[in-house]
Amino acid sequence: MATNMRDIKREIKSKQNMKQITKAMEMVAASRLRRAQQAALASRPYADKLKEVVASIAAGTKDVKHPMLETREIKKTGYLVITSDRGLAGGYNANILRKVTQTIQQKHKSADEYALFVIGRKGRDYFRRRNMPIVEEVIGLADSPTFADIKSVSSSAVKMFADGSYDELYLYYNKFVNAISQIPTETRLLPLEEISEGTKVSTYEYEPSPEGVLEVLLPKYAETLIYSAVLDGKASEFGARMTAMGSATKNATKMISQLTLTYNRARQAAITQEISEIVAGANAQS
Amino acid sequence: MSTFLVEIVTPERKVYEETANMVSVKGVEGELGILPNHIPLVTPLRIAPVTIKRGGVVDIIAVNGGFIEVRKDKVVILAESAELARDIDVRRAEAAKKRAEERLAKREQIDYHRAELALQRALNRLSVGR
């Protein structure tokens, strides 16, 4: 019995260590979540403004033609997938990767029909293991990524659409709802959906011309959408991690109390046995 | 003296928000001086310093990759990056300038355009930072 008691004690100790770690990770994630949310919020004015201007050009000038607004016959599809670098974030990566894989399996027969852009180590490893074609990857993104961090991947994703390497671009990321709920989301980034809001048509002068301005703004707009998705993804990551670590901590607490109970029972049993042995010994002597 | 609101916004944050008398920028078609009640206008900007006059103060901001939206009572500059003189790391900009010049000297075809842009950004920062 004594050895068993020692085993249980060791197990309790290890669970306590684990609980400490998960607890710490939960708190770290909580504080980063707040920062990530602020960053996502701070990026909104830029995106809104850009959208407003693009929409007003689209609404103000009737027949704007731009390759990024035109729907082409789809021969090849680009996917931009946003995952995290580290695990221990519940279903964060698994959910989004499952969604991408399902779509790809349904829509494409061979690996020539699609191209992948991956942000985050988890996603990169996943696709690499399955020998899927990764065009560009970004790993080791900071907790609050700057626009410059993702500029290269977003601009090459947009550029490859513009030069016809693929005919549509989808964006996969976890949309942040709140700390406990993140929805894996698929959005078609390019060609850009109708962005005219219709009502608010402000008449601007355009220099050099509406088309010229659009030429510059549309790629920027698409890149900004990618950037906001990255920020949203970051917030989701910390939310997911916080929730996952919170429930891990709770489970650890439960296990510890369960084990403590078993331990005390074993201790009680050992004492009882010892007493009965002593009593039996005393009885035998007299 | 009439004034208008000037905002400079980057994807990361709002860099600048002041009431000003005049804004001077370098658009793709040439230099523009904007006073209150300017006609509504949208134009992309070159990589160049933006000068803002308010009262007796002149603010100079290094703006990269942006465009300007002018309305009757408000001017918004959207840019990929924008830095006030005090935020510029002159040493880093100088290093970037040197790096870009070396690349340009080698005349590598692929990165030529990128190096050129990097050089422009560095020079822009330096001219504001000093």
TrEMBL record, chain A:
Q: Which GO terms describe its cellular component?
A: plasma membrane; proton-transporting ATP synthase complex
**Places the protein is found:** Cell membrane
One molecular function GO term is:
proton-transporting ATP synthase activity, rotational mechanism
* SUPFAM superfamilies in UniProt: ATP synthase (F1-ATPase), gamma subunit
* Keywords, sorted A to Z: ATP synthesis, Cell membrane, CF(1), Hydrogen ion transport, Ion transport, Membrane, Transport
Q: Origin, by domain of life?
A: Bacteria
What Pfam family is a match, any one? ATP-synt
Keyword Methyltransferase listed: no
Bilayer topology term:
Peripheral membrane protein
**Claim: Ribonucleoprotein is one of the keywords in the record:** no
InterPro entries for this protein: ATP_synth_F1_ATPase_gsu, ATP_synth_F1_gsu, ATP_synth_F1_gsu_CS
Q: Name one GO biological process term.
A: proton motive force-driven plasma membrane ATP synthesis
Write out the similarity annotation: Belongs to the ATPase gamma chain family.
Role summary = Produces ATP from ADP in the presence of a proton gradient across the membrane. The gamma chain is believed to be important in regulating ATPase activity and the flow of protons through the CF(0) complex.
Quaternary structure, per UniProt, is: F-type ATPases have 2 components, CF(1) - the catalytic core - and CF(0) - the membrane proton channel. CF(1) has five subunits: alpha(3), beta(3), gamma(1), delta(1), epsilon(1). CF(0) has three main subunits: a, b and c.
Q: What is this protein called?
A: ATP synthase gamma chain
TrEMBL record, chain B:
> Does the UniProt entry include the keyword Coiled coil?
yes
Q: Which family does it belong to?
A: Belongs to the ATPase epsilon chain family.
Give the molecular function GO annotations: ATP binding; proton-transporting ATP synthase activity, rotational mechanism
Q: What is this protein called?
A: ATP synthase epsilon chain
Q: Which gene encodes it?
A: atpC
What keywords sit in the KW lines? ATP synthesis, Cell membrane, CF(1), Coiled coil, Hydrogen ion transport, Ion transport, Membrane, Transport
What CDD domains would the database entry show? F1-ATPase_delta
Q: Which Gene3D superfamilies match?
A: ATP synthase delta/epsilon subunit, C-terminal domain, F0F1 ATP synthase delta/epsilon subunit, N-terminal
A single GO CC term for this protein reads: proton-transporting ATP synthase complex
Principal localization?
membrane
Superkingdom of source: Bacteria
Cell compartments where the protein resides = Cell membrane
Indicate the quaternary assembly: F-type ATPases have 2 components, CF(1) - the catalytic core - and CF(0) - the membrane proton channel. CF(1) has five subunits: alpha(3), beta(3), gamma(1), delta(1), epsilon(1). CF(0) has three main subunits: a, b and c.
- The record places domain ATP synthase epsilon subunit C-terminal at 87-128
The record's annotation in NCBIfam families points to: ATP_synt_epsi, PRK00571.1-3, PRK13446.1
Outline what the protein does: Produces ATP from ADP in the presence of a proton gradient across the membrane.
Q: Give every ATP synthase F1 complex delta/epsilon subunit N-terminal domain span.
A: 6-82
